[in-house]
Design a protein that fits this description.
The chain is mainly α. Helices cover about 75% and strands about 0% of the residues. The chain has one domain. The radius of gyration is 22 Å and the shape is globular. Keywords: Acyltransferase, Membrane, Transferase, Transmembrane, Transmembrane helix.
Protein backbone atom coordinates (compact mmCIF):
# COMPACT_ATOMS: atom_id res chain seq x y z
CA UNK A 1 0.00 0.00 0.00
CA UNK A 2 1.10 3.55 -0.69
CA UNK A 3 2.74 5.23 2.29
CA UNK A 4 0.77 8.12 3.78
CA UNK A 5 3.57 10.56 4.44
CA UNK A 6 1.79 12.81 6.94
CA UNK A 7 1.21 9.77 9.18
CA UNK A 8 4.92 10.03 10.03
CA UNK A 9 4.37 13.59 11.17
CA UNK A 10 1.37 12.55 13.24
CA UNK A 11 3.45 9.86 14.98
CA UNK A 12 6.01 12.52 15.86
CA UNK A 13 3.29 14.84 17.19
CA UNK A 14 1.92 12.05 19.40
CA UNK A 15 5.38 11.26 20.83
CA UNK A 16 6.11 14.95 21.44
CA UNK A 17 2.80 15.43 23.26
CA UNK A 18 3.58 12.53 25.60
CA UNK A 19 7.07 13.94 26.26
CA UNK A 20 5.68 17.39 27.04
CA UNK A 21 3.16 15.96 29.49
CA UNK A 22 5.86 14.11 31.45
CA UNK A 23 8.20 17.09 31.59
CA UNK A 24 5.31 19.23 32.80
CA UNK A 25 4.46 16.64 35.48
CA UNK A 26 8.05 16.19 36.72
CA UNK A 27 8.68 19.93 36.92
CA UNK A 28 5.33 20.66 38.55
CA UNK A 29 4.39 22.98 35.68
CA UNK A 30 1.21 21.03 34.93
CA UNK A 31 -0.47 22.30 38.08
CA UNK A 32 0.54 25.93 37.87
CA UNK A 33 -1.65 27.71 35.30
CA UNK A 34 -3.67 27.37 32.12
CA UNK A 35 -0.56 26.62 30.06
CA UNK A 36 0.30 23.89 32.55
CA UNK A 37 -3.07 22.24 31.99
CA UNK A 38 -2.53 22.36 28.24
CA UNK A 39 0.87 20.71 28.64
CA UNK A 40 -0.55 18.07 30.98
CA UNK A 41 -3.05 17.00 28.35
CA UNK A 42 -0.17 15.88 26.18
CA UNK A 43 -1.01 12.39 27.42
CA UNK A 44 -3.59 12.51 24.63
CA UNK A 45 -0.69 11.40 22.44
CA UNK A 46 -1.44 7.85 23.60
CA UNK A 47 -4.94 8.12 22.12
CA UNK A 48 -3.39 9.22 18.83
CA UNK A 49 -1.05 6.21 18.86
CA UNK A 50 -3.97 3.84 19.49
CA UNK A 51 -6.07 5.37 16.71
CA UNK A 52 -3.10 5.13 14.33
CA UNK A 53 -2.60 1.46 15.22
CA UNK A 54 -6.24 0.66 14.49
CA UNK A 55 -6.15 2.58 11.22
CA UNK A 56 -2.90 1.10 9.91
CA UNK A 57 -3.34 -2.50 11.07
CA UNK A 58 -7.00 -2.99 10.19
CA UNK A 59 -6.83 -1.19 6.84
CA UNK A 60 -5.24 -4.16 4.98
CA UNK A 61 -8.14 -6.36 6.16
CA UNK A 62 -10.70 -3.75 5.08
CA UNK A 63 -8.99 -3.52 1.68
CA UNK A 64 -9.12 -7.31 1.42
CA UNK A 65 -12.87 -7.23 2.04
CA UNK A 66 -13.71 -4.25 -0.17
CA UNK A 67 -11.01 -4.22 -2.86
CA UNK A 68 -10.16 -7.93 -2.96
CA UNK A 69 -6.48 -7.28 -2.23
CA UNK A 70 -4.40 -10.23 -0.93
CA UNK A 71 -5.39 -11.48 2.50
CA UNK A 72 -2.86 -10.47 5.19
CA UNK A 73 -0.76 -13.39 6.39
CA UNK A 74 -0.95 -13.82 10.19
CA UNK A 75 2.60 -15.18 10.46
CA UNK A 76 4.11 -12.30 8.48
CA UNK A 77 2.00 -9.86 10.46
CA UNK A 78 3.15 -11.33 13.80
CA UNK A 79 6.84 -11.23 12.86
CA UNK A 80 6.62 -7.61 11.74
CA UNK A 81 4.67 -6.46 14.77
CA UNK A 82 7.05 -8.11 17.23
CA UNK A 83 10.02 -6.70 15.32
CA UNK A 84 8.48 -3.24 15.54
CA UNK A 85 7.94 -3.28 19.29
CA UNK A 86 10.21 -5.67 21.18
CA UNK A 87 13.89 -5.15 20.23
CA UNK A 88 13.89 -1.40 20.93
CA UNK A 89 11.71 -1.95 23.99
CA UNK A 90 14.05 -4.55 25.48
CA UNK A 91 17.05 -2.28 24.88
CA UNK A 92 15.32 0.56 26.73
CA UNK A 93 14.30 -1.84 29.51
CA UNK A 94 17.93 -2.87 30.05
CA UNK A 95 18.86 0.80 30.44
CA UNK A 96 15.98 1.34 32.87
CA UNK A 97 17.11 -1.63 34.99
CA UNK A 98 20.72 -0.43 35.03
CA UNK A 99 19.72 3.03 36.24
CA UNK A 100 17.35 1.51 38.80
CA UNK A 101 20.14 -0.75 40.12
CA UNK A 102 22.66 2.09 40.35
CA UNK A 103 20.37 4.71 41.90
CA UNK A 104 18.67 3.49 45.07
CA UNK A 105 16.46 6.59 45.17
CA UNK A 106 14.55 5.25 42.16
CA UNK A 107 13.24 2.29 44.14
CA UNK A 108 15.65 -0.27 42.73
CA UNK A 109 14.95 -3.06 40.28
CA UNK A 110 12.38 -4.75 42.50
CA UNK A 111 11.55 -8.43 42.54
CA UNK A 112 12.21 -10.94 39.76
CA UNK A 113 8.48 -11.23 39.00
CA UNK A 114 8.42 -7.48 38.40
CA UNK A 115 11.40 -7.70 36.05
CA UNK A 116 9.93 -10.72 34.29
CA UNK A 117 6.58 -8.95 33.85
CA UNK A 118 8.39 -6.09 32.12
CA UNK A 119 10.29 -8.47 29.84
CA UNK A 120 6.93 -9.83 28.69
CA UNK A 121 5.38 -6.31 28.58
CA UNK A 122 2.78 -7.20 31.20
CA UNK A 123 3.23 -4.15 33.44
CA UNK A 124 -0.08 -2.73 32.27
CA UNK A 125 -1.76 -5.72 33.92
CA UNK A 126 0.34 -5.95 37.08
CA UNK A 127 0.27 -2.22 37.83
CA UNK A 128 3.92 -2.39 38.95
CA UNK A 129 6.37 -0.37 36.90
CA UNK A 130 9.55 1.69 37.15
CA UNK A 131 9.57 5.42 37.65
CA UNK A 132 11.35 5.89 34.33
CA UNK A 133 9.10 3.46 32.42
CA UNK A 134 5.61 4.47 33.55
CA UNK A 135 4.51 5.35 30.03
CA UNK A 136 4.90 1.75 28.84
CA UNK A 137 1.60 0.63 30.33
CA UNK A 138 0.24 1.50 26.89
CA UNK A 139 2.46 -1.10 25.23
CA UNK A 140 0.61 -3.82 27.13
CA UNK A 141 -2.60 -2.48 25.59
CA UNK A 142 -0.96 -2.20 22.15
CA UNK A 143 0.29 -5.79 22.20
CA UNK A 144 -3.14 -7.01 23.29
CA UNK A 145 -4.60 -5.16 20.31
CA UNK A 146 -1.97 -6.71 18.04
CA UNK A 147 -3.11 -10.15 19.16
CA UNK A 148 -6.73 -9.26 18.42
CA UNK A 149 -6.15 -7.74 14.95
CA UNK A 150 -6.08 -10.99 12.90
CA UNK A 151 -9.36 -12.11 14.44
CA UNK A 152 -11.02 -8.69 14.18
CA UNK A 153 -9.69 -8.23 10.65
CA UNK A 154 -10.86 -11.62 9.40
CA UNK A 155 -14.36 -11.04 10.80
CA UNK A 156 -14.47 -7.54 9.32
CA UNK A 157 -13.32 -8.64 5.85
CA UNK A 158 -16.06 -11.27 5.77
CA UNK A 159 -18.68 -8.72 6.83
CA UNK A 160 -17.50 -6.23 4.20
CA UNK A 161 -18.14 -8.73 1.40
CA UNK A 162 -21.86 -8.70 2.16
CA UNK A 163 -24.41 -6.02 1.34
CA UNK A 164 -24.41 -3.32 3.97
CA UNK A 165 -21.00 -4.42 5.21
CA UNK A 166 -19.62 -0.90 5.59
CA UNK A 167 -22.58 0.13 7.72
CA UNK A 168 -22.14 -3.02 9.80
CA UNK A 169 -18.47 -2.28 10.54
CA UNK A 170 -19.19 1.35 11.35
CA UNK A 171 -21.98 0.26 13.69
CA UNK A 172 -19.57 -2.12 15.42
CA UNK A 173 -17.03 0.70 15.78
CA UNK A 174 -19.72 2.87 17.32
CA UNK A 175 -20.72 0.06 19.66
CA UNK A 176 -17.12 -0.47 20.75
CA UNK A 177 -16.75 3.25 21.42
CA UNK A 178 -19.89 3.32 23.56
CA UNK A 179 -18.78 0.24 25.50
CA UNK A 180 -15.34 1.78 26.03
CA UNK A 181 -16.81 5.02 27.35
CA UNK A 182 -19.14 3.08 29.64
CA UNK A 183 -16.24 1.02 31.00
CA UNK A 184 -14.28 4.19 31.67
CA UNK A 185 -17.20 5.35 33.80
CA UNK A 186 -17.26 2.00 35.60
CA UNK A 187 -13.50 2.21 36.18
CA UNK A 188 -13.78 5.72 37.62
CA UNK A 189 -16.58 4.63 39.93
CA UNK A 190 -14.57 1.56 40.94
CA UNK A 191 -11.57 3.75 41.70
CA UNK A 192 -13.75 5.96 43.86
CA UNK A 193 -14.82 2.85 45.76
CA UNK A 194 -11.19 2.11 46.61
CA UNK A 195 -10.00 -0.18 43.82
CA UNK A 196 -6.54 0.37 42.37
CA UNK A 197 -5.33 -2.51 40.23
CA UNK A 198 -8.68 -3.79 39.00
CA UNK A 199 -9.97 -0.37 38.01
CA UNK A 200 -6.66 0.51 36.41
CA UNK A 201 -6.56 -2.67 34.32
CA UNK A 202 -10.14 -2.11 33.18
CA UNK A 203 -9.54 1.53 32.26
CA UNK A 204 -6.37 0.81 30.26
CA UNK A 205 -7.55 -2.36 28.47
CA UNK A 206 -8.29 -2.42 24.74
CA UNK A 207 -12.00 -2.43 25.54
CA UNK A 208 -11.63 0.31 28.15
CA UNK A 209 -9.93 2.42 25.50
CA UNK A 210 -12.23 1.08 22.81
CA UNK A 211 -13.24 4.58 21.73
CA UNK A 212 -9.63 5.39 20.78
CA UNK A 213 -9.23 2.25 18.69
CA UNK A 214 -12.75 2.56 17.25
CA UNK A 215 -12.14 6.01 15.79
CA UNK A 216 -9.08 4.77 13.89
CA UNK A 217 -10.97 1.72 12.61
CA UNK A 218 -13.96 3.83 11.54
CA UNK A 219 -11.74 6.20 9.57
CA UNK A 220 -9.96 3.23 7.98
CA UNK A 221 -13.14 1.55 6.77
CA UNK A 222 -14.61 4.85 5.55
CA UNK A 223 -11.46 5.72 3.59
CA UNK A 224 -11.31 2.23 2.09
CA UNK A 225 -15.00 2.29 1.17
CA UNK A 226 -14.46 5.62 -0.56
CA UNK A 227 -11.59 4.16 -2.60
CA UNK A 228 -13.78 1.19 -3.52
CA UNK A 229 -16.78 3.35 -4.41
CA UNK A 230 -18.78 1.59 -1.70
CA UNK A 231 -19.78 4.45 0.59
CA UNK A 232 -23.35 3.63 1.68
CA UNK A 233 -24.68 7.21 1.64
CA UNK A 234 -26.30 9.36 -1.02
CA UNK A 235 -23.90 11.87 -2.61
CA UNK A 236 -26.19 14.73 -1.61
CA UNK A 237 -26.95 13.40 1.86
CA UNK A 238 -26.08 14.86 5.26
CA UNK A 239 -23.45 12.23 6.06
CA UNK A 240 -21.58 12.97 2.83
CA UNK A 241 -21.68 16.66 3.67
CA UNK A 242 -19.92 15.92 6.97
CA UNK A 243 -17.37 13.72 5.21
CA UNK A 244 -16.62 16.50 2.73
CA UNK A 245 -16.11 18.84 5.67
CA UNK A 246 -13.54 16.43 7.09
CA UNK A 247 -11.70 16.56 3.77
CA UNK A 248 -10.49 20.02 4.77
CA UNK A 249 -7.25 19.76 6.74
CA UNK A 250 -7.69 23.29 8.10
CA UNK A 251 -11.17 22.50 9.40
CA UNK A 252 -9.94 19.31 11.07
CA UNK A 253 -6.98 21.04 12.69
CA UNK A 254 -9.07 23.92 14.02
CA UNK A 255 -11.63 21.48 15.40
CA UNK A 256 -8.81 19.43 16.97
CA UNK A 257 -7.44 22.56 18.64
CA UNK A 258 -10.87 23.37 20.07
CA UNK A 259 -11.25 19.81 21.37
CA UNK A 260 -7.77 19.96 22.94
CA UNK A 261 -8.63 23.18 24.76
CA UNK A 262 -11.82 21.57 26.06
CA UNK A 263 -9.81 18.57 27.25
CA UNK A 264 -7.53 20.93 29.18
CA UNK A 265 -10.50 22.50 30.96
CA UNK A 266 -12.00 21.24 34.23
CA UNK A 267 -14.59 19.42 32.11
CA UNK A 268 -12.09 16.57 31.67
CA UNK A 269 -11.08 16.46 35.32
CA UNK A 270 -7.84 17.05 37.22
CA UNK A 271 -4.41 17.00 35.58
CA UNK A 272 -2.60 15.53 38.59
CA UNK A 273 -2.91 12.03 40.08
CA UNK A 274 -6.26 12.82 41.69
CA UNK A 275 -8.94 10.41 40.45
CA UNK A 276 -11.54 12.07 38.21
CA UNK A 277 -15.25 11.67 38.70
CA UNK A 278 -17.24 9.37 36.45
CA UNK A 279 -18.39 12.26 34.27
CA UNK A 280 -14.88 13.73 34.04
CA UNK A 281 -13.31 10.39 33.13
CA UNK A 282 -15.85 9.74 30.37
CA UNK A 283 -15.51 13.30 29.04
CA UNK A 284 -11.73 13.02 28.87
CA UNK A 285 -11.92 9.68 27.07
CA UNK A 286 -14.41 11.04 24.54
CA UNK A 287 -12.48 14.25 23.91
CA UNK A 288 -9.24 12.34 23.38
CA UNK A 289 -11.01 10.06 20.88
CA UNK A 290 -12.34 13.09 18.98
CA UNK A 291 -8.89 14.71 19.01
CA UNK A 292 -7.23 11.58 17.64
CA UNK A 293 -9.89 11.18 14.95
CA UNK A 294 -9.64 14.79 13.79
CA UNK A 295 -5.84 14.73 13.60
CA UNK A 296 -5.90 11.44 11.72
CA UNK A 297 -8.50 12.82 9.31
CA UNK A 298 -6.30 15.88 8.73
CA UNK A 299 -3.29 13.67 7.96
CA UNK A 300 -5.31 11.75 5.35
CA UNK A 301 -6.48 14.79 3.37
CA UNK A 302 -4.88 14.73 -0.12
CA UNK A 303 -2.13 17.32 -0.39
CA UNK A 304 -2.13 19.43 -3.57
CA UNK A 305 1.18 19.65 -5.37
CA UNK A 306 3.16 22.67 -4.26
CA UNK A 307 1.19 23.12 -1.03
CA UNK A 308 2.79 23.50 2.40
CA UNK A 309 1.27 20.20 3.52
CA UNK A 310 2.71 18.42 0.49
CA UNK A 311 6.15 19.90 1.19
CA UNK A 312 5.98 18.85 4.83
CA UNK A 313 4.83 15.35 3.91
CA UNK A 314 7.65 14.65 1.46
CA UNK A 315 10.40 16.36 3.46
CA UNK A 316 13.02 13.90 4.81
CA UNK A 317 12.71 15.47 8.26
CA UNK A 318 9.08 14.33 8.50
CA UNK A 319 10.03 10.77 7.62
CA UNK A 320 12.90 10.90 10.14
CA UNK A 321 10.61 12.27 12.87
CA UNK A 322 8.21 9.38 12.31
CA UNK A 323 11.08 6.89 12.42
CA UNK A 324 12.32 8.10 15.80
CA UNK A 325 8.88 8.62 17.37
CA UNK A 326 8.82 5.20 19.03
CA UNK A 327 12.29 5.75 20.45
CA UNK A 328 11.23 9.15 21.79
CA UNK A 329 8.28 7.47 23.48
CA UNK A 330 10.47 4.75 25.00
CA UNK A 331 13.42 6.82 26.23
CA UNK A 332 12.17 10.26 27.27
CA UNK A 333 11.14 9.44 30.86
CA UNK A 334 14.44 7.64 31.51
CA UNK A 335 16.33 10.66 30.16
CA UNK A 336 14.21 12.85 32.41
CA UNK A 337 15.04 10.69 35.42
CA UNK A 338 18.77 10.67 34.69
CA UNK A 339 18.79 14.47 34.41
CA UNK A 340 17.07 14.77 37.78
CA UNK A 341 19.49 12.27 39.34
CA UNK A 342 22.53 14.05 37.89
CA UNK A 343 21.41 17.47 39.11
CA UNK A 344 20.08 16.28 42.48
CA UNK A 345 16.84 18.08 41.79
CA UNK A 346 13.76 16.88 43.71
CA UNK A 347 10.64 15.82 41.86
CA UNK A 348 8.06 18.53 41.05
CA UNK A 349 10.73 21.22 40.88
CA UNK A 350 12.65 23.00 38.13
CA UNK A 351 11.84 25.45 35.38
CA UNK A 352 9.86 23.74 32.63
CA UNK A 353 11.81 25.13 29.67
CA UNK A 354 15.24 24.54 31.20
CA UNK A 355 14.32 20.90 31.79
CA UNK A 356 12.53 20.45 28.46
CA UNK A 357 15.47 21.53 26.29
CA UNK A 358 18.00 18.93 27.52
CA UNK A 359 15.34 16.22 27.71
CA UNK A 360 14.24 16.89 24.15
CA UNK A 361 17.81 17.08 22.84
CA UNK A 362 19.12 13.98 24.60
CA UNK A 363 15.98 11.96 23.88
CA UNK A 364 16.16 12.83 20.18
CA UNK A 365 19.80 11.74 20.07
CA UNK A 366 19.15 8.42 21.82
CA UNK A 367 16.01 7.76 19.76
CA UNK A 368 17.94 8.44 16.55
CA UNK A 369 20.60 5.91 17.55
CA UNK A 370 17.90 3.41 18.49
CA UNK A 371 16.22 3.85 15.10
CA UNK A 372 19.43 3.57 13.09
CA UNK A 373 21.16 0.78 15.01
CA UNK A 374 18.26 -1.35 16.27
CA UNK A 375 14.79 -0.58 14.94
CA UNK A 376 15.43 -0.04 11.23
CA UNK A 377 17.82 -3.00 10.74
CA UNK A 378 15.42 -5.35 12.52
CA UNK A 379 12.43 -4.02 10.58
CA UNK A 380 14.24 -4.34 7.24
CA UNK A 381 15.00 -7.94 8.04
CA UNK A 382 11.40 -8.61 9.13
CA UNK A 383 10.02 -7.03 5.95
CA UNK A 384 12.43 -8.88 3.69
CA UNK A 385 10.47 -11.21 1.47
CA UNK A 386 11.72 -14.77 1.29
CA UNK A 387 13.29 -15.74 -2.00
CA UNK A 388 10.95 -17.73 -4.26
CA UNK A 389 11.52 -21.47 -4.29
CA UNK A 390 12.94 -22.51 -7.68
CA UNK A 391 10.67 -24.72 -9.73
CA UNK A 392 11.69 -28.34 -9.86
CA UNK A 393 13.27 -29.40 -13.13
CA UNK A 394 11.70 -32.24 -15.00
Amino acid sequence: MKRIRLIDGLRAVAALLVLLSHVAFWTGASGQDVVGRLLARGDSGVAIFFALSAFLLLRPWFRHGLLDTPRPRPRTYAVRRLARILPAYWLALVAVLVVAALASSTGGTGSWPKVFAHVLVLQGLTGQTYQSFTQTWSLTTELTFYLAVPFLGAAASRALRSAGGVRTILARCGGLAVVGLALQGVAMAWTGAGSQRGAGVLATSIVGHGAWFAVGAAIAVTATARDAGRLPWRPDGRVMAWLRLLRSAGTCLLAALAVYVLAASPLAGPVDLTAPTVAEGVAKELLYALLAGLLLAAALVPTPAGSVAEAVGRHPATHWAGDISYGVFLWHVLVLQVIYLATGRPLFSGAFWWVLLPVLGLTTAVASLSAQLVEQPVLRRAHRRPAPVPAARE
